[in-house]
Amino acid sequence: MRALLVPGAGGQAWDWHRLVPLLDDAVAVQLPAEDDTAGLAAYADAVVAAAGVDPGPVVVVGHSMGGLSAPLVCDRLDVHRLVLLNAMIPAPGESGAQWWSGSGHSEVDIGEFDEVEHFYHDLPPDVRAQALARPEPGQSETPFTEPWPLDAWPDVPTQVLAGAEDRLFPVPFQRRLARERLGLGVTVVPGGHMAALSRPEELAAVLRG
Fold this sequence. Notes:
The chain is an alpha/beta fold. It has one domain (2-208): Alpha/Beta hydrolase fold, catalytic domain (Rossmann fold, 3-Layer(aba) Sandwich), CATH 3.40.50.1820. The protein is built from 9 helices and 6 strands. The chain has helices at residues 40-51, 66-69, 96-102, 115-120, 125-133, 142-145, 171-182, 195-198, 200-208; strands at 2-6, 26-28, 58-63, 79-85, 158-163, 187-189. The radius of gyration is 16 Å and the shape is globular.
């Protein structure tokens, strides 16, 4: 079954490059993150296009900001399972910009934000060096300004994965958010916010299961 891997802010398919070879059939989606004309509908279009022609049943994995766009393809593809990895879980009508306060994340003490400490602290040194050497990805504010367009969460099996060492979205926060917004528990997986880069083998095992 094909896995569609939807990245977070910055929209880089590269964020999945260590995970893709460990899955039988996986496609890392590149989102139009730098395009100020592209909103959530364009992000969903990119996911559907990446699926290819007649992909059959798929698993859609949304990481971080990918939690806003991954659910939007459930009425366009045969989604067998929707997986949220350290993801934003939106409420109907809530914009991405409103999510930080609406979700209660603004009340979570994560310290002063630092890219390395919050995103790359647990990456192997060589992978961290690669990540920091890459041009900083751009991210348009456009998809953050739009109200999340669905009236309710899609009626598909949903799994919430929380990185045990996530410093941006700590596990207790993710547990509460998943419970309040989806009525679901979370599966804690090894790694931090960028678990697909830091612990791809363990993440692949969970996705295959």
